[in-house]
Specification:
Blueprint lengths: L1 H21 L7 H24 L11 H11 L1 H7 L2 H9 L4 E6 L15 E8 L2 H14 L4 E6 L13 E7 L8 H11 E12 L5 H9 L1 H8 L7 H7 L3 E8 L4 E7 L5 H17 L1
Parallel strand pairs: 1-2, 1-4, 2-3, 4-5
Antiparallel strand pairs: 5-7, 6-7
The chain binds S-adenosylmethionine.
Amino acid sequence: MPISVTRAIAFASVAGAGVALAWKKPYADWQREEKAIRQDIREEQRKARISQSSSQQPRGLSRFIPPAVAAIDAAAPLTLMQSIGLDQWRGELCGQATGRVLEVCVGKGENFPHYDKASIEELVLTDVDGEVLQIARERSRQVLEGLRVETCQCDAAGMLPFPDDSFDCVVCAFGLCKAEDPIEAVREMARVVKSGGKLLLLEHGCGSSALINTWLSLSMKQRFRKDGCFYNRPVERIVQQSGVDILQLRRRHAQTQYMVVASKKEPGALEAQRARKELPRLARGG
Ligand SMILES: C[S@@+](CC[C@H](N)C(=O)[O-])C[C@H]1O[C@@H](n2cnc3c(N)ncnc32)[C@H](O)[C@@H]1O
């Protein structure tokens, strides 16, 4: 009898986990959720300033919440999982970069070993952090020896300091998660890429399973506080909403890692699309 109870519990757990994993839940209002987190953090900082000045320490159960959430985050197997096969994806993405290439949010040049130097005329590197950009510049001299490399410190979330249509490809790996307005950031990348050029994006974001998204949401605030990163954004929707054409979209690791190849819409494409949608209505009306 105890065995059958154990089996029943095991069966129920496996079935429950299966149902939870299969339960697809779209991430409803990510912008509202992020705004609430930013406000919460501002409020916490304000309270911390007051308690510091009156030398009060947090009391009660609330003092256990941040360490508990940090433990959840540290234990998150997704972080580990997302590093598996990452170099292969970097290679597949960056291998498509040709001509005059812009990399935004370059970091310390994690993508450099994955570029095909022979296909690139010039690489322009940007990051908001000057020190990081300096590291990237020095690393590029070793890893991309012989390639023309320029650097430009700028914020990918604002207006990029380049004219329209100035690059054949724009690469961004794990940068959209940091931009205050990721939709605007993709629009800017699309503005500076030439018609027929490519946006090459690698990103982490929400999965399609409610269970995984709930897990990610639990540590979202903690992660944002630590890294300034919203790692569970609905990347596909963000790219779609920025108005580019998605040429290729791949997802893996419980759908939480995204590789996107996109291009800017051709001039007049939107109008043509609208016209196509309106045609049946006009036909019915007529
Ligand atoms: C997670 S790292 C990604 C680094 C690298 N691209 C990679 O593939 O690993 C994010 C980088 O984006 C930069 N960053 C963050 N916010 C930014 C912004 N608003 N504009 C430009 N760069 C930003 C950070 O300084 C950091 O170097």
